[in-house]
Amino acid sequence: MSNDTAQTWLLPTPRGALHAFSSPEPSPQQKAVQALLGGQAAPATAAWREQHDHSGRMLEQLRERQWVQILRREVPAPDVRLGDFAQHVIAPLSGERCAVLASDSGFCLGHSGLDADLAETLSAAAADYSSFAQRQARRGWAGASRVAFHSDPDMLLPDWSFIPFWVDGTGYWLLLAGEPLLNNLAMVELLWSIRLAGTRFAAPI
Amino acid sequence: MDPAQLHARRQFRARTCAVARTPEDAGAHLARLQAAVQLGGEEPVQGCLADLFVAVPGEDTGVRQAALQLAASRLPDYVREAFARHAHGHLLPGITPLATRWSVIAQPSANVAARVRRGGADHSRRLAAQVVEALLEGDPLHASRVERDFLDHCLSCQDKLAFMLASRDLRRHELAVGDRWEQVAATLEQRDLMGSRQAANPPAPIP
Predict the structure, then answer these.
(1) Are B88 and B152 contained in the same domain?
(2) Which of A4, A60, A88, A96 to mutate: most B Cβ within 10 Å?
């Protein structure tokens, strides 16, 4: 074991977390990064390597891509009720501090900076777009995933960005007004809290 | 939205795209930094500076110093000093506590307090100003809703900065607040015991 892994802990970076949860069927590498957000605190490096880095190269590869960060102290998971937590943690992901968290079936799971009616309308739009993206994927085009909607003719500053992610097989959408600010530890905290909440956070059927 | 503010955001967005396309172009970084100065708050400026310090080759110390001078008035002292330590050639790691959500090259480090992971200083200041304004305006229904949301935010995000700023301004206006403020203060204080010990003794950076 290298000196880097003695008495250290691991967490995904914002880009690493976005990559890890960007697919409904995650690769072994994506699953290994997801595992960093499975407990009540960031995992110890040695324990994570024992379970997920059988080749002995995974950690180096993830660090080269700056998808994980080695920490010299333990970082605790969010310990708050998720419904409240999501509402508060999604706002900084939007340049206009207006954000919605929706299930891929169209339920609004949390919103901040906008009224409930608009949040529900946008959640329904995300569900429609989700169906569209799945239909395109079945036809062979996987490019319909993240999407931005503009009203400015030069398409510089989006009105809304729709960002899908999947946690333990369940699909979600983040809907962000203005600049999407995803290089953001709030994204890591949000994904972590959804994982920990598990079925408690599933949309009503 | 205020047309001047919209124009500033569009300028910043365009220059951010230019930096993302050519990360080693010092001129593009400086132009973006100038655009960031036109935006409100400290986070966009700090985020741009972190990108420049990570992406522009270390030997280009003149650019770093010029950029720091351009941004200096918009940064808190401790942030300015942290950048100054890297202004003479020491590369800033790609994952750094100096990056903000507005950075596109540098990534923010998780080696920070929960408040910083869950929202930036600008967000804290804005929320504090909102709750003070609502409580002073006197519309009880609106004020009550804003106050409840604010205290929930402080607890969820362990946002001691927002709580401290709002409490200070309310005291200044001699406005009495309910018991829940004391309860939130006690909870934050309790949680802060661990966090402040960590923040006071930050770990050595890992390259």
Answers:
(1) no
(2) A88
Q: What does the pLDDT profile of chain A (205 residues) look like in tens digits?
A: 445 546 999 999 999 999 999 999 999 999 999 999 999 999 999 999 999 998 899 999 999 999 999 999 999 998 756 557 888 899 999 999 999 999 999 999 999 999 999 999 999 999 999 999 999 999 999 888 899 999 999 999 999 999 999 999 999 999 999 999 999 999 999 999 999 887 455 544 4
B127 shares a domain with B62 = no
Residues B104 and B134 in one domain: no
Total of domains in chain B: 2
Nearest residue to B127 (alpha-carbon basis) of A92, A41, A59: A92
Cβ of A185 within 8 Å of Cβ of B116? The answer is yes
Please give the residue of chain B at the shortest CA–CA distance from A187.
Answer: B118
Does any CB of chain B come closer than 8 Å to the CB of residue A69? yes
Considering the domain architecture, whether residues B55 and B107 belong to the same structural domain is answered as yes
State the pTM of this model. 0.89
- Strands A147-149 and B107-108 come out as unpaired
Contact yes or no for B150/B131 (Cβ under 8 A): yes
| A188 touches B: beta carbon within 8 Å | yes
- What number is the ipTM of this complex? 0.91
**Cβ(A172)–Cβ(A194) under 8 Å?**
yes
B140 falls within a domain: yes
Q: How many angstroms separate the CA of residue A141 from the nearest CA in chain B?
A: 26
Assess whether B126 and B98 both reside in one domain.
no
The answer as to whether B66 is a domain residue is yes
Which of A76, A80, A92 is the closest to B101 by Cβ? Answer: A92
Nearest Cα to B149, choosing from B170, B164, B174, B130?
A: B130
Query: Contact at 8 Å (CB) between A114 and A98?
Result: yes
